[in-house]
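Mods, move this if it's the wrong board.
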Amino acid sequence: MKRRCGWIQAAQETPARVVWARNGAATTVCPKSMINPQSMEWIEAYLARRRFGETGAEGMHARQVEAFLILDRELGVASAGPNSGQRSGRAQQVQDA
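Not the wrong board. Structure tokens:
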């Protein structure tokens, strides 16, 4: 129960505490339990499109476009580094909590 994995019901009944933190972002649930086959597909498709210089949203579903925009924003924040002053909205929410 150390990491409060999301798929283990008993883990969710334990007191909330930070189990992962990096560059101003933190979570009280193991981040691996948040990754599913669909999110892995979006990450792989995003990286492939980036590698081949594809831009635009033609032929993409709205959820995929949203996922790509989030990945693009978070990659920019991660690339800027922890001391750049840039923060994602989620990281700011975690800090404010």
